[in-house]
Amino acid sequence: MGASMNGIAAAIGDLVQKIGRPVRLMEVCGTHTVAIFRHGIRDLLPAGVSLLSGPGCPVCVTAIADVDRAVALARQPGVLLATFGDLLRVPGSAMSLAEARAGGAQVAVVYSPLDALELAAANPGHQVVFFATGFETTSPLIAATLLTAQERATGNFSILSVHKLVPPALRALVATPELAVDGFLLPGHVSAIIGVDPYRFIAAEGGRPAVVTGFAAADILEGIWLLLRQLAAGAARVENQYQRVVRPEGNPRALALLDAFFEPADAVWRGLGTIPASGLTLKPAYAELDASRRLPVAVPAAREPAGCDCGAILRGLKTPPDCRLFGRACTPERPVGACMVSSEGSCAAYHRYGQRPAPPVGPAA
Ligand code: SF4
Description:
Order of helices and strands: HEHHEHHEHEHEHEHEHHEHEHEEHHH
Distance between the termini: 27 Å
Number of helices: 16
Largest sheet: 5 strands, parallel
Bound molecules: iron/sulfur cluster
Oligomer: single chain
Structural class: alpha/beta
Strand order of the largest sheet: 2-1-7-8-9
Low-confidence stretches: 356-365
Mean pLDDT: 93
Helix content: 25-40%
């Protein structure tokens, strides 16, 4: 677009006037949520534009049952569970991984799955299990680590895969009758892997515009402007604002690596329930790398935290300040739900940067 931030903001204001009604847009990705707050983008937008957070924070959408399974694994004798740090404090039904560690379970924080593989090499007397979470951005790195584990013939390494796929979750959202969202800002980094085509259904079936968007302030404003331009014209297309990074076909090498190790499987998402083919499980040929097959554990039925509206927030039906626990019983220091734990969680971002509530939920035009 090539305009200054204030110039884009002014163009957005013109489009909102042309549309003539309040517009609600969902930033699907937690990284966008944080960038929007950090850059003060809400303050640049006219009152008629509301931004809602979506299901794109991997920690937030990890089901409590999956946290419980990781805790149960970590408490097995001889198991060392490796995890990204932001999962450590996510409350499970009975305890978090941090609490399990305080109780004697072996839990290590790692910065990459390769670190977990190194842990396996350094601890030959343990079974090292990597708690593999995240979207298409992270899963190719896990697949590369599995390839390395195979090449090294590491016998004491496996993963607990709770990977999620973004397009099936968006498909479930778009099919939700109460969805009050006029358009979607799509995650730039996930799209760098999967490309643009997997999102076409949003326009074709959901009748809503969507824009793959980068993470700089100017990217996000331009993404919003592109969405509003479509809405003002009565159009619904999938556009790519982030062309300097995202190719239409994505990253074929990363996709091939994923396809070599994983296959889609039904997955449980916090707030969205079970979504068909929305997760990644290891192919049967790699059972020795699959902790759920290699180290089965019994896990009681999961219990959701009472009063937590995380699920409704991840579906764009509520904003964090709508939750009666927000900033009171639930804070970053004492989180009740996952959305307050991760730095990319909507509740944590609202809490850190302040908030401007969205207008009451009503049907999108
Ligand atoms: Fe859940 Fe806490 Fe967010 Fe409320 S503020 S929705 S309890 S994470």
